[in-house]
Specification:
It contains 15 helices and 23 strands. 36% of the residues lie in helices and 27% in strands. Bound molecules: zinc ion (ZN). Zinc ion (ZN) binds next to loops.
Amino acid sequence: MAKDNFVEQIADIDSDFPQWYTDVVLKTKLVDYGPVKGTMVIRPYGYAIWENIQKELDRRFKDAGIENAYFPLLIPMSFMTKEAEHVEGFAPEVAVVTHAGGEKLAEPLVIRPTSETIIGSMYSKWIQSYRDLPVLMNQWANVMRWEKTTRPFLRTSEFLWQEGHTVHASEEEAMDETLKMLAVYEEFAKTCLAMPVLTGRKTEKEKFAGAVATFGMEAMMHDGKSLQAGTTHYLGQNFAKAFEIKFLDKDGALKYGYTTSFGVSTRLIGALIMTHGDRRGLVMPPVVAPVQVVIVPIASKKEGVLEACRDLKEKLAAAGVRVVLDESENSPGWKFNEWEMKGVPVRIELGPRDLEAGKCLMARRDTLEKGEYALDSAAESVRALLKEISENMYNSAKARMDRRIVRANTLAELLAGVDGGNFVRAGWCGCRECEDKVKEFAQATARVMDGENTSDTCIVCGKKAERTVVFARAY
Ligand code: ZN
């Protein structure tokens, strides 16, 4: 049965989600395993998603006044040790170069796990006066964090990301920047990835090593687990003091700057796969989909069919749509399965009968619904449909997330909640022991703290709660 080919190719999404994920990323040719354990090769279909993510985010950064720069991959080991929390947090994950050019190096070099230190050292050279502030820079780069258990896109020893690094004259301005970039990420996730997120501050335990405060956006995956999809950090003067980032202020006093950093990575590709995928495979959000429309000719040997398909392809491409015409020898049924598995948002079928009627058939990947559209206005119809698909994907994912955020008043309720694939909101007194207890009892971690005031009691110790926390199992 050609119709159900996909069932044989990928594991069942509900009964074996981890295998479904592995099958989908490999079989749709997004990624492959690299020869060094824990590394991944991003194949063209996967890299095209990243390019679209970059394009969309980069425009938003530039609108926010951020400029791109590039800093070196290698960081002197001594830099890493200048900020105490930072070195402690990253020490277990760093890869170190000890030999080069056939000789042992005088000082070992760290392959960047993140660039606060090297960028901080350069900022200290470049910043003299309040007139030099704020400094708003970003770099698109690879980083390396030696991980023990890895999965393509979600956790790999080398990954691609962007890291923004800013310096400000005041605490308030730096905090504003931290929250502003979190809002940029949230809007980007909604508009471009059709992905709803929860945003909020991280607990001390979950914050970035060296930050005063970390804010994150968390997305709910198909199995109800959480995925940290992006973070922004208010670094206070921690790195400014470690790297002597000082400026002469208006009042003539020499002061330390306040810094921030923020990043998203190729993890976002894993996030969109696990947010939107279904039993047939990928479901690509239209804004970042490498291919937005595939045209499948029906009875392609019949006179005029291929010509009409090529003509339609040109029209769509001219309208700015990323379109592919599948002229391969495979049967239409085989092509339907293949492109469905690859998650292409819209499939257009065009055959002799459609041509006669001046119509074409469009099938949506998100709902699998089909409809007839006039051929001569196909480009406008496609653009409207892509927009509708994007909104529908966001709304469905949002409805699912809202439905699966539950409250708990006891640890047993919390455990039942996360066992059932939910995010669980609960009161927390703010102490590390209670947070650890939740982890131990329910294998769930504090994802974000809600800003709201709470009259709750701590779910562990019963004391007055300082915060409401969203707990979940996480990738
Ligand atoms: Zn407590």
